[in-house]
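Q: Please design a sequence for this.
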């Protein structure tokens, strides 16, 4: 018991010192030099104690500080990643008890995780996040996982790296750079409808869930398998949402960049079939069809930006989308003219770089002129 009190006191003093001095570097240096410190001898207890003490007062501020301390210690190889994942999992294990006292409990723990994921030196990814919530996966990890994503989106660190593709673009890039983790490790398929929101997080969750189906399927069966999965797991209300098309497009894009062969078209027949089927899955007004097609283009734009895809490849892709009658001329033109960012969706997107696409839109205009001449 005395040893636990010792760890708690060490953690509490550390947080008080930071609040008074704002001296994170000095704290890390002191911990690094003191080889008798609990941080060197009792890693998991230190992580668990620090995480719980942050809940006592000003939890949002303190949890972020704790996350930054963990990230720095991990980057300096003082604190092993296993100690962090096991320590946080030990806290999450009793989530039901803590939730009664701290209704925002998952938000507080997410604030500890975010600095670890955002750190450029700590080498902490979504596979490590999976290990942080072993005791609550998968039935009770959905809320925690979505809180982590939301915390990353609104964090100061994300805003600071926005010029270097922050926000949702950063999340996609981090997810794809991590060791492969199926989304249903965090969110069971039968909970996707419940947690789908018409925003960036909702589109992300749906896109990764659909990508998982494409990844695991035989290439010849991708259309049938994904179509069956959507029919079984995704509600008609979600499918009707234009953002569904953004998610489907992103899923196809991710699948293709991981499997495309040299000289092969970016979109193969089954992908064209999937896109055209769900763009017009039911009789819709022209305006709604255009809205769904425009979301496809935003999906390609998001992934091209996130992965810094070659602009010439995007140009080829646009030509294929038009030639295969996936996207109409009206939808391309609507996308081109749409300079207004949609709240909750496009804050991460830079202004469209039209230079590389000039030839495509010139060709569209020429085709339009040819059609007019033919009509006459």
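A: Design:
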């Amino acid at each position: 018991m005395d040893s636990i009190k010792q760890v708690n006191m060490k953690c509490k003093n550390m947080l008080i010192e930071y609040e008074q001095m704002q001296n994170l570097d000095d704290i890390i240096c002191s911990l690094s030099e003191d080889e008798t410190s609990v941080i060197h001898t009792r890693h998991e207890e230190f992580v668990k104690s620090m995480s719980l003490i942050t809940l006592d007062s000003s939890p949002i501020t303190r949890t972020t500080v704790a996350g930054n301390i963990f990230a720095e210690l991990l980057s300096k190889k003082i604190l092993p990643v296993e100690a962090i994942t096991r320590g946080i999992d030990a806290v999450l294990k009793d989530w039901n008890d803590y939730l009664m006292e701290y209704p925002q409990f998952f938000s507080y723990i997410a604030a500890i995780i975010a600095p670890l994921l955002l750190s450029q030196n700590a080498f902490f990814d979504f596979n490590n996040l999976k290990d942080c919530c072993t005791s609550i996966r998968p039935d009770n990890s959905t809320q925690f996982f979505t809180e982590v994503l939301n915390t990353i989106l609104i964090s100061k660190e994300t805003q600071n790296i926005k010029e270097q593709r922050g926000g949702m673009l950063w999340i996609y890039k981090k997810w794809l750079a991590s060791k492969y983790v199926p989304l249903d490790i965090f969110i069971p398929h039968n909970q996707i409808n419940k947690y789908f929101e018409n925003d960036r997080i909702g589109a992300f969750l749906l896109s990764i869930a659909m990508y998982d189906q494409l990844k695991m399927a035989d290439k010849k069966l991708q259309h049938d398998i994904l179509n069956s999965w959507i029919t079984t797991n995704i509600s008609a209300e979600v499918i009707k949402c234009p953002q569904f098309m953004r998610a489907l497009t992103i899923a196809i894009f991710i699948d293709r960049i991981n499997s495309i062969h040299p000289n092969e078209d970016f979109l193969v027949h089954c992908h064209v079939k999937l896109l055209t089927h769900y763009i017009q899955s039911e009789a819709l007004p022209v305006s709604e069809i255009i809205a769904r097609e425009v979301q496809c283009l935003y999906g390609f734009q998001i992934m091209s930006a996130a992965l810094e895809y070659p602009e010439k490849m995007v140009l080829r892709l646009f030509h294929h989308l038009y030639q295969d009658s996936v996207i109409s001329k009206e939808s391309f033109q609507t996308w081109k003219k749409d300079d207004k960012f949609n709240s909750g969706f496009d804050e991460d997107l830079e202004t469209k770089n039209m230079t590389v696409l000039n030839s495509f839109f010139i060709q569209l205009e020429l085709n339009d002129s040819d059609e007019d001449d033919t009509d006459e």
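Q: Thanks. Anything notable?
A: Residues 286-306 form the longest helix (21 residues). The chain has a mean pLDDT of 84.
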